[in-house]
Amino acid sequence: MNGTHIVKASEIERKWYLIDADGLVLGRLASEVAKILRGKNKPTYSTNTDCGDYVIVVNVDKIVLTGDKLNQKVYRHHTGFPGGLKEVVAKDMLDKKPERLFETAVKGMLPKNALGREMFRKLKVYAGEAHDHEAQKPEKLEIKA
Hints:
CATH 3.90.1180.10
């Protein structure tokens, strides 16, 4: 009788992927990155284990938002103090902190628990072309726009 194979942490092989976000749509790229971080692209995927890979995303400052989302999309957070609701339009966030714009999109697509936070730590986002992970020899991944 064959049983279901449950992947152990010692059996997981992690790879490093490099993605160039130049000219790609924010949501479509974020969903592909979330799949890789969760490990859904592997045959050994398990919902209760972090079996995903590391992802490096460069040129996030050149990412594209479709329609009029650049002016209409609003990101909100609360400071915790009375009257502390802060709002930032996507255009301002793309100008000032493009890394945070992309990280927010990916984080919303991951599980909202300790496992999701562990997966999110494997995401490395950079506004320019340069990154600090050449030693890991990342495999260049082409995402279709």
